[in-house]
Structure of diguanylate cyclase:
Amino acid sequence: MGHPSIHDHIEKNRPGVARLKVRSAVTLMLAVCLSMMVIVIWETWNSRQYHLHDKEVAMSNLAQTLASQAQSSIKQADTLLFALVDRLENEGIAPGQLDRLQRLLGAERSELSQIHGLFVYDENGRWIANSNGAEVGGANNSDREYFIYHRDHPDRGPHIGPSIKSRSSGEWIMTVSRRVNHPDGSFAGVALATLYLNHFLQLYDSIDMGDNGVINLIADDASIIVRRPFNEADIGANLSKSPLFTQLLPAASSGTATIRSLMDGVERVVGYRRVEGYPLIVFVALDKQEVLASWRKQSMLSAGIVAVLLGFLGVLGFRLIKLMKQQDRVQTELLGTQEKLLELNRNLELLALEDALTGLANRRQFDLFIHSEMGRARRNVTDLALLMIDVDHFKAFNDQYGHLAGDECLRKIAAIITDHIKRPKDLAARFGGEEFAVVLPGTDYVGAFLVAEKIRQAVLTAGLQHSESPEGRVTVSVGVCGHGPASQAQTDDLIGAADKALYVAKASGRNMSVIAN
């Protein structure tokens, strides 16, 4: 009783209020679902770009390492040729000196495993001497490219010719040659060193480039000197119309890119670098589809999880809206559901900081931690060190023993790393795949190297069987990098330097720790 007009007014407006609440709830649900989809798409795209950038950095580091190896191998042979030319031009070749010259060439060849042979030809291309003990007879090499080049060009520098098959042994070789002159400066012949292509292929084949990756050593004239995977038909192929020569090299002597191959049409993530002092280019590339394979798998998993969450949210929203239409207590239930969702998000955030397989910190926690510690090191003017640890031949381990054994191997290595990280302020994390990272605040690169060696030795001592490894057991390679108080390096610089040192350790034979330069 009392005020029936006011009561009627409230009852009359309740359906409008309920409809407004329903519309608001529907709008909110759509906004949440759309936001989740946008966030997932954005994170997936960023993850894709990170995968590609990470491999570009890896290819750049690998190209630099292989360029240094090629320069060193060729330089050793060229140094012998320089001394040989000087001897020939100053002392000449008397008939009585040939035996001595033969012995000298044989001795010098035996000092360098990459050298197939050392040869001397006169101005007509006739064999004068060689290191292989082959009969000189009437052999003549005046038709060879290197002989014609030196005959027609007076410059005295080294010349690297196209890969050829040796007439003395039938093996594929690379030629490095120098011109020999008479006292009056006229052409007197050629001094030649031949290098086994297999010397380069053995190293290239030892590098995991996936099923469709390539490593090329290319001459400045765009012809292929050696290519992995090796195919005789590819030797000497001309790449002058490839993106490497039309786009990349004109812009910079080294770099990275994603391009499509002229030879097989495969799109690859590439790194390239000119060999210092010689007209050669090292070109390394991973199949882009293989690079993104793990990303696609991760993205599909994320999409599945998000679909489940969206389905869950949809069912929950329908239920809430139905309850809103039926009962006045929907507001209380909505608040309760919201609290559950917040608690679920808090739990997910906690789980998102830990790697489920190893129990170590995951990549997200590592990124947050190293950014924080870099800032702390700058403020407090203290040292900071980073270890990048990678399990050697892990793909071969998985192929031999299966992925369950591979998971168990990663757990054991994680436990070993944890045992050697004693200080509470240190962090060990699973960086990705078979790669781990250790952040050591307040530690310089010397202390970090000692920790790296302890971990490496502990893994070796653990004796985890690995029949596909040269050691017969599981080993790790470690890249070490230190951030000094005066350094202006950023987080990516520190990670990149440690990763580069890790690739050097890999390329140098594995089972070792290398400090970044």
About this structure: The radius of gyration is 33 Å. The chain has four domains: 58-73+204-291, 77-198, 293-351, 363-515.
